[in-house]
């Protein structure tokens, strides 16, 4: 009976209430918060409802479930904060590449009161010296947790620990997948994905794409046991998978080293794949009822972007020299963003970092390409609130764009002190915007 009641709480979150933000990018919302009324303008002196200092460091997005906010963090005895973009790139001794730290790290899940920001509890999940290092700009707590009405799931790729806690911090179950070795010891970043449907099936997806293996685990969210596994060629990816309704067939879609692959939600059987991409993914893909869209960029890549129509199946890879064909509506270069995930609003697709690129989603025709104000890159993914697009840059300034085929800046909103860095994706909770920095969590409303 207790298992049934807990499962019904999970299923109730299958179509998430707009009041909650239960996983990375809002889960099936893909960064949309259509019913929210978050402010258009703010700064340090206006609209800051509360600011809570956080121990340690982490780039995980805050998530919201009921009256609670959950964040993860990694605490080192000597303190220390991640570098910004240029600080990481210009790390002269290692070119930003990591080596294992000499001191232990304490991995924690924090629960905050949604109304006041007060820390209700802090739960230590692991305490050990990491086996692998990380990029100077990354953290050891970059994976965003996810939550149901009474359970929070947190994954730490540095140890390979996945844990399920109730909302008071009591452990329900855990899995140990082992430390994840990534390219050049850049560290990990792919978040767990929670999916629930009306049949009572609640699944938790853990993507372990690294330098030793490439496995997608589908777990029973109640017990933590594997329902199925899908393996492919090894290669690091930092992208979080999504669940997409492909013309009536639910699929889980992953972005890996040089490829995007879709699996049947129930069985893990491969349904389609697209290969030949010249780099891996640090950003996730996005989808709507008409298709699935993705783009990526890294040093040395051509920053490709692609659109694939609904109803696709099989090997969709393009032959050399092709830019479209079959289910592939279009492809183009010099378009994909590095780390912020794209968003689609109506008929338009947006790739955003230092540059804002807007394309027609069906034909790929570029509507505009404009440099964003502030001169600083964005790392966290954008949010769509009604007909506005919110993009936070690493200096703490949020640019608000009008959605549509014309470039229009509605507001620029500075936040934080000069030494704070903002890489985490913001979250939405009704009329509040939650913004995380290297030092604190802010509530804007």
Detailed description of the structure:
- By secondary structure, the chain is mainly β.
- The protein has a single domain, classed as Methylamine Dehydrogenase, Chain H (7 Propeller), CATH 2.130.10.
- 4% of the residues lie in helices and 40% in strands.
- The protein is built from two helices and 33 strands.
- The strands form eight sheets. A five-stranded mixed β-sheet has the order 14-15-16-17-21, with no helix packed on it. A four-stranded antiparallel β-sheet has the order 1-33-32-31, with no helix packed on it. A four-stranded antiparallel β-sheet has the order 2-3-4-5, with no helix packed on it.
How many distinct domains?
Answer: 1
Rg computed from alpha carbons, rounded to a whole number of angstroms: 20 Å
The CATH level-2 architecture is identified as 7 Propeller
Shape: globular
CATH superfamily: YVTN repeat-like/Quinoprotein amine dehydrogenase
The poorly predicted ranges are 1-18
- Please report the total strand number as a whole number: 33
Detail the topology: elements first, then pairings.
Blueprint: H1 2-12, E1 48-53, E2 63-65, E3 68-75, H2 85-89, E4 105-113, E5 119-128, E6 146-147, E7 151-156, E8 161-166, E9 171-176, E10 193-196, E11 202-209, E12 214-220, E13 226-231, E14 242-246, E15 249-256, E16 259-264, E17 270-275, E18 286-287, E19 291-295, E20 305-309, E21 314-315, E22 328-332, E23 343-345, E24 348-352, E25 355-360, E26 366-371, E27 383-385, E28 388-392, E29 398-402, E30 409-413, E31 427-429, E32 432-436, E33 440-444
Parallel strand pairs: 17-21
Antiparallel strand pairs: 1-33, 2-3, 3-4, 4-5, 6-7, 7-8, 8-9, 10-11, 11-12, 12-13, 14-15, 15-16, 16-17, 18-19, 19-20, 20-22, 23-24, 24-25, 25-26, 27-28, 28-29, 29-30, 31-32, 32-33
